[in-house]
Design goal:
The chain contains 9 helices and 14 strands. The chain is α/β, with parallel strands linked by helices and 356 residues long. The chain is globular and about 60 Å long. The protein binds 4'-deoxy-4'-aminopyridoxal-5'-phosphate.
């Protein structure tokens, strides 16, 4: 039976990425060797890194003065790299979830952290708005898509201070204006590649302003100057990232992904709203994520949760169990998820309603 992969991360990748990466594991660029066993300094691999960086710049219209780097350590290492490199004395953090809170915790090691707003009071089911932002912040850190709770900041914020954004789970899903950010970063394992690599888009002018010494590996300058080859990069994830970026370009780029993502999410949110057995955990439409769609059984039907899980599983849906801190269901609808998979889940919800 065909599987419909709704995992939140690691998560579905384009078939193009999986097939090409599998081939390169056996024979990379005609070398007769696996991509896992050639030097990262070989001309074949250097070309992969260069193309991946160039395609990120092209797809996101990265302006002059910004650099793209691939770094090991996942998004969690970025939580400390950001303040290490940018925080002179004071930074703001918008607390929209567990990952945002983890980023905030790391920043406290480096200076004053102002929590500008938090939605923790309601288990992070909304994006705070209308909060005050001190004008003397070195930067304000936001998490654009909150993978666990299904909330998303879908516009580029203009708050009068430099913005740093964790875009781990919505990068490449909608057009962004990179010039509005000092740093955009994320782990690759949602919309880009297998886990093992993080990306960062860094405004060069934002660097070099702190007095503290920065360990070589945690200094963005190191990775920029050495074109992500200061040490051995995670070669397989970077190879896979290049495949996904190529697929993105061949499929109409980011604007076309956004169109597909709006359509897919719309199908599922409409069904959640019209089906009396289910309800969305996020109330405000503008806060609803296009990447992670969280829903629970309506209050009077909570005991039927297991039944729906069984039905959806019997239709091939995988990975729809909600995060333990939210419960219910979470359908992640990343770029690579076909509309057909959402249709299968929606059909299962309709079938469930007609059976009960
Ligand atoms: N930020 C967000 C929004 C995430 O969803 C995750 C992982 N699920 C992380 C950060 C942490 O990423 P990593 O596991 O790559 O450290």
């Amino acid at each position: 039976m065909k599987k419909h992969n709704f995992y939140a991360g690691p998560s579905i990748l384009p078939e193009f990425t999986i097939k090409n990466t599998a081939e390169a594991v056996l024979n990379f660029a005609g070398t007769g060797l696996s991509v896992m066993e050639v030097s990262h300094r070989s001309k074949e691999f250097v070309a992969v890194m260069d193309q991946a960086i160039a395609l990120v710049k092209e797809l996101l219209n990265v302006p002059a003065g910004y650099q793209v780097v691939f770094i090991g350590g996942g998004a969690s290492t970025q939580f400390c790299m950001v303040p290490f490199n940018l925080m002179k004395s004071k930074a703001g953090y918008l607390n929209t979830g567990a990952w945002a809170a983890k980023a905030q915790k790391e920043a406290k090691l480096f200076g004053d952290v102002i929590e500008v707003a938090s939605s923790k009071d309601a288990n992070y089911n909304y994006i705070p708005k209308g909060f005050d932002v001190p004008s003397d912040l070195d930067y304000l850190h936001i998490t654009t898509n909150n993978t666990i709770y299904g909330t998303e900041i879908k516009t580029d914020l203009d708050l009068g201070v430099p913005i740093v954004a964790d875009m781990s789970s919505d990068i490449f899903s909608r057009p962004i204006d990179v010039s509005k950010y000092d740093i955009i970063y994320g782990g690759a394992q949602k919309n880009l590649a297998p886990s093992g690599v993080a990306f960062a888009i860094v405004k060069e002018g934002a660097l070099g302003k702190v007095d503290r010494q920065i360990p070589t590996m945690l200094d963005y300058r190191t990775h920029i100057d050495k074109e992500s080859m200061f040490n051995t990069p995670p070669v397989l994830p970077v190879y896979a990232a290049l495949q996904t970026l190529t697929w993105l370009k061949d499929n109409g780029g980011i604007a076309s992904m956004e169109k597909r993502n709006i359509e897919k999410a719309g199908l599922l949110y409409d069904e959640i709203e019209s089906n009396k057995f289910f309800k969305a955990t996020v109330e405000a439409d503008e806060d609803k994520s296009l990447m992670n769609i969280c829903f629970v059984m309506n209050d009077e039907y909570t005991e039927l949760e297991k039944d729906f899980m069984e039905l959806a599983t019997s239709k091939g849906c995988v990975g729809i169990k909600g995060h333990r801190s939210v419960g219910g269901f979470r359908a992640s609808t990343y770029n690579a998820l076909p509309k057909e998979s959402v249709e299968v889940l929606v059909a299962a919800m309709k079938e469930f309603a007609s059976k009960h």
